Each structure stands twice: as C-alpha cells, then as structure tokens.
Amino acid sequence: MPARGKQKIVSNRKDRKLIDLSTAMIRAFVFDIGNVLIPFDFNRAIRRIASQCATPFERLPPRAKEITQRYESGQIGRAEFLQQAIAALEYEGSEADFVAAWENIFEENVAMTRLVAGLHGRYPLYLLSNTSDIHADYFEATYPVFGYFSGSVYSHLVGCMKPGRQIFEIALSQFGLQPDETVYIDDLAPNVATARDLGFHALHYDHTQHARLLEQLRALGVEGVSE
Fold this sequence. Notes:
The strands form 2 sheets. This protein has a 5-stranded parallel beta sheet. It has helices spanning 42-49, 60-72, 78-88, 95-103, 110-119, 133-142, 155-158, 165-175, 189-197, 210-219, and strands at residues 3-4, 25-26, 28-31, 125-129, 151-154, 182-186, 201-204. The protein is 42% helix and 11% strand. The protein has 2 domains: 3-39 and 108-219, HAD superfamily/HAD-like (Rossmann fold), CATH 3.40.50; 42-103. The longest helix is centred in the first third of the chain and has 13 residues, at 60-72. Strand 4 (125-129), helix 6 (133-142) and strand 5 (151-154) form a beta-alpha-beta unit. It is an alpha/beta fold.
C-alpha cells in the first residue's frame, strides 16, 4: 500500500519549496549510493598507493580527481582511466594492485541497510549514482544491500552526471516514475536541489544523523521505517 503523508511541513528557506505531506503519496524510492548506502573515502585509495607513486603525496588527490571525473562521466572507459591515472600519478606498482586499492574505499552503513530491508517489498527501490564500473562492480559484489534494488542509473553508462537534470530525467523514464510520488535521498545539496526542482520528495542525508531521515520518512507516512 503506498504511503500517504499525515501532516504538513513547511521547508526552511534553503529548501526553496513547500512540501505538503498531507497530500503526499509515496510509491517509490531512488537512492544515491556514496555516503548514503555506503560511506566512502577516496583518500583511502590514495594512501594505499602513495608509497608506489613518484608524484608527491599532496599532488595525488587533485590529479586523481580530474581523471576520475572524466571516467565517471563516461568520457573515458576503464582501460583509458587506468592508463591515464597510472601515468598522471606516476604509479609504479601493478595494475591489479592499483584497482584493488581504488575499489576498496567503502564501508557499510548498517542503519541504512536496515532501512532499505524494511522498505523492500513495500516499495520499488532504485539507484542513481555518479560512479564508475570499477566501483560499481566492487560494491554490487561486496554489499548485500544492493540485492534489494530493482534497477540502477549510473553516470558512466549514461554519459551525464548529477547535479545535472538529464541523469534524473533518464532515471524517471527508465524506472517509469512520477517525481511527486518518489522519495529521492542524497548526501549532496546540489543533487537534492535538482531533484526537488524536478518535483521529487528530495531528502538531504547525513549518515551521521540517520535518525533525522527516519523522522522525515515517518512524516511522509512511509511504511517499513524502524529505529
């Protein structure tokens, strides 16, 4: 049974919109991945490879960021990313060791896994993320929470990224969703703003304040929300 909200909340000035929860009918959820389902830290990878890089440590993150953005936007593929990253960082180890360091930057958000398990079977659940195939292959194989989701839109596959509108519109079309019936959860304010502008019930998430998300979902009348 879809959830119908039971009260009205007026968002603060930053939210820019009024959300009338008394008329909200929630039929689906779309989740961001990084720092929502699974917190991550790119510096974990940098620290692992630093001893095998001729580039000084302080110059590794900005060099890696530029190449990673091209990779996650679909401008370059896995092979090109590895070639360019290894060259730019002056990495002297093996490609296999580089990939092992690069992919293992995540950890489970146990509270979010519990929430997703409670929503599963009550609502269709989908993924929308700026990511790459190295990371997607790893986290889908490593964390059981991804088994609860019915579909995904990944930036490296569709050639566009959040916070741009296009990737959200692709998700709406691919999943057959109406934004005013869909909850979207993301940790980055610009992504939340785009989703809200498109009509989603967009919630700004901080994994250190998970209880706040639960309160927001209960206010929307969402079923399957436990402590």
